[in-house]
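Help! Submission page says 'invalid entity' but I think these are all valid:
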Amino acid sequence: MLTLYFAPHTISLATHIVLEEVGADYTTVRIDFGTTQQRSPDYLKINPKGRMPALVTDRGILTETPAMLVYVAQSFPKAGLAPIDDPFVFAQIQSFNSYLCSHLHVAHAHRMRGYRWVDADDRHSIAAMQRKVPQSVSEAFAMIEREMLQGPWVMGERYTICDPYLFTLAQWLETDGVDPKRIPKVMDHRRRMSERATVKKAIAQEFA
Amino acid sequence: MLTLYFAPHTISLATHIVLEEVGADYTTVRIDFGTTQQRSPDYLKINPKGRMPALVTDRGILTETPAMLVYVAQSFPKAGLAPIDDPFVFAQIQSFNSYLCSHLHVAHAHRMRGYRWVDADDRHSIAAMQRKVPQSVSEAFAMIEREMLQGPWVMGERYTICDPYLFTLAQWLETDGVDPKRIPKVMDHRRRMSERATVKKAIAQEFA
């Protein structure tokens, strides 16, 4: 049995969708981001980093989305969401997911989490970071559009763990100030993702 | 045959060390960061993101350190640097490497790459980011010291791809304003890493 600690409007949705895709037997625990429950002593016992999400397994607790996605895919090999036996294609999947976690998600986070990188009461710098987000996030999505998204899925004909991860970050692109007309492949990918029953179910659970 | 595009003083050292550890047949191409050669048209053909490093393989080009580390480990299984057949331990390795790329390395980058997240001519915000680096990088190393580094190696008794990656980021901790006395396990790890013949050889090649 797996337990996903999640919060709506966070990157936890990516792992949530993959749990649905593989048909895992899992439960969820909702953490209230609004009251910063993710920094509560109880949750810090689950994830000392105080971040979302966390996945409780029979062998221990896992954090960090790229790791959790591979873990779920590898635990349910029949779903075929990550070709771990092909080192090069698997590396391409890992490379894409690394770009999302270390570049796109980080650029996005400067809109609401600027206090991680400057003093929280430095209004000038916090605002300066927010003003840069439309450019930095747009450039990251343009790179994905031009160089990475093979189509119809991220890795081409094969649907993989990259797809729910990209979809989750693409939820926020309008709010980040990205012009959807400049990234038609990303927008088409998002639309097709949103029509999948697994995606609908995960979203419905998060916002129930 | 593998070819590593690298630059001294960058994260490329992590992959470089792992290539040595596995005994790979590889060559290197040095990119001059000082003249921003990483943004040259020739290098952008190798890595459109204009970042270090890139690994040219017989099947194509790979980027992003977490992906390259797993690829090299998986291509040379006898070296045993990543237990890919154990989904939970492999996920722990991936989780650690994700934390390095998306959190520790990002915190560090605010010291010299602030222009990614605010306008380059906004001196106030660039300086504000630099002032925060000692705190943000120290907190990340404290988290590694307290919660992640099992000892003697990152994953315990087994030396893995996590070790060269941590070692490479630990090269910069004094310049980032971290107090070494607060992270004795990290410092002991760095010292033992620096004594390995493979590490000495990779460093000697980068600075030759």
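Support: the input was valid. A stray whitespace character was the problem, and the output above is from the cleaned input. The CA atoms of residues 4 and 67 of chain A lie 14 Å apart.
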